[in-house]
Amino acid sequence: MRNKIGFSLSLAAAAGFQAVLAQPLQARPNLECANPPSVTCTSYQARGFASYGECVTYYSEYCPLLESGEGGCVYDPRIGQTICW
After folding, report:
1. Residue 32 pLDDT level (bands cut at 50, 70, 90)
2. How many degrees, rounded to 5, is the angle at CA 85 between CA 30 and CA 68?
3. If 49 and its partner were Cys, which of 34, 37, 55, 73 is the partner (CB 3.0–4.6 Å)?
4. Whole-model pTM?
5. Crossing angle of helices 2-32/52-68, nearest 10°?
6. Residue 31: what pLDDT?
7. pLDDT at 53 over 90
């Protein structure tokens, strides 16, 4: 019985730990979209974009869709694929 309790507690702790780790990931897009794309993209190379224009185009499409809460799809030139959420 003790092993079952220990396993359940470990599982619960792991689930709680994962939930805490997921929170910053959810907050990350809000930080990216807190400023207009023209400001966000001043560091376009550090964000992985080949050009300022690619960065502005991406965030101009991504942020409104993200903030709508309805999900959507946008082409990410950094990975060469369309991402959806």
Report:
1. confident
2. 55
3. 55
4. 0.60
5. 120
6. 81
7. yes
For residue 85, what are its two tokens? 């959420």
Contact present, 16 and 53 (Cβ < 8 Å): no
User: Count of CB atoms within 10 A of residue 42's CB?
Assistant: 13
pLDDT of residue 59: 95
Return the sign of the alpha-carbon dihedral for residues 15, 27, 42, 83: positive
Provide the β-strand partners of residue 76: 81
Q: Rounded to the nearest 5 degrees, what angle is found at the Cα of 25, between the Cα atoms of 85 and 83?
A: 25
- CA-nearest of 24, 26, 52 to 40 is 52
- Rounded Cα gap, residues 37 and 32, in angstroms: 9
Q: Where are the domains of the chain?
A: 1-26, 33-85
Residues paired with residue 77 on neighbouring β-strands, in sequence order: none
The pLDDT of residue 28:
47
